[in-house]
Amino acid sequence: MPTEAILSTARQFLGVDPTVPITLEPIKRGASGRTIVRVKTKNHEPFIGIHWNEEREDNSQFIPVGHLLKQAKLRVPTIIHERPRARVVLVEDLGDVDLLSLKDRPFAERLPYYRSAFEQVDRLFYVKPPKDFHLMKPFDAAMYRWEQEYFFEYLVEDFLGMDAGGLRKNQAFIDLAERLGTRAPHLVHRDFQSQNLLIKDEKVWLIDFQGLRRGRQEYDLASLIFDPYLDHSAEEREALLALWEDIADERPLETLFHECAAQRLMQALGAYGNIVKNRGDDWYRPHIGTAGRLLGEVTAGTALEVPLAPILAAIRKLNL
Fold first, then answer.
1. Where in the chain is the domain with CATH 3.90.1200.10?
2. How many CA atoms lie within 13 A of 253 on its CB side?
3. In the beta sheet, which residues pair with residue 205?
4. Given CB 3.0 to 4.6 Å as the disulfide criterion, which of 163, 172, 185, 264 pairs with 303?
């Protein structure tokens, strides 16, 4: 059992016998095939225990990527004990405050945290892993097509009950994947959204970075600026782009940025559809409506507008 593996690893790390009480408090975070708990005991500060299964290839990347990012001086939790054969790692406890939990605060009060998050994206841009460092498959055309297929299968077919055959064959989606996949030299977090940005000491720290790979920086930016959990207004999105420009001295090209946003939103919709339909977690249901509306915004006037129109109309009818 995952919790038993974490508990035995915690005892090994602490050097205590089975008579010493240890409490494991579940932490619900996403649906990535991992068990995450807060480990508490009397004579040691709390820390986080993570057990992963083999459901996703990237889960085993958490430890090496965590070391890489820490060495590159990005703000990530310190790995305090690792037991790869048992698929368990113990890491620093950064607390429970993430960017999403601050959603109801005035936007102006949240801006410093966005700056802190964008600074991490900017630093990641310059990280150069050793030549023999294993990364997940890069964001090439095949990976973007995989994300699109995830959207077609789990949102369009499973959740909405619609036929996605025409979408799979539509050249606009194929062309989008080809355009975005032509250049992937830099590292991207891959899931740079508000739940994966924890706040400690008034700074943003990155978690869930095991999907690190080479890709377009604009994908990470779009993941946060068009984050359905936060549902930024057009004015807020403009302020965030201005903030990024202040950090990086340039803005992403609007067409490319919106294409990355469209791709990311399709991936998110596929994930929401899968989690709601197949895992029964209704917390994600209202975010389908938000993501669908945002997808409509970034694809308006593009080759994707017409083929996506029936799908987005079906989402709107659900009144999520």
1. 100-317
2. 5
3. 198
4. 172
Structure confidence by residue, pLDDT tens digits, 266-307 = 999 999 999 999 989 999 999 999 999 999 999 999 999 999
User: Residue 132, CB half-sphere, CA atoms under 13 Å: how many?
Assistant: 0
Cα–Cα distance measured from residue 133 to residue 315, given in angstroms and rounded to the nearest whole number = 42
Q: Which fold has domain 100-317?
A: Aminoglycoside 3'-phosphotransferase; Chain: A, domain 2 (3.90.1200)
Angle, helices 217-225/254-279, rounded to nearest 10 degrees = 60
- CA distances (Å), 107 to each of 66, 206, 290, in order? 30, 21, 18
Contact 271, 150 (CB under 8 A): yes
Q: How confident is the model at residue 19 (pLDDT cuts 50, 70, 90)?
A: confident
CB 123: neighbour CB atoms within 10 A?
Answer: 14
What are residue 264's phi and psi, to 5 degrees? -65, -40
- Domain 2-92 CATH superfamily: Phosphorylase Kinase; domain 1 (3.30.200.20)
299-196-189-104 Cα dihedral, nearest 10 degrees: 40
* CATH 3.30.200.20 residue spans of the chain: 2-92
CA 302 to chain centroid, in Å, comes to: 26
Residue recorded with tokens 């990155």: 206
- Structure confidence at residue 96 as a pLDDT band (50, 70, 90): very high
Q: In what helix (H) or strand (E) does residue 50 lie, and over which residues does it extend?
A: strand 44-52
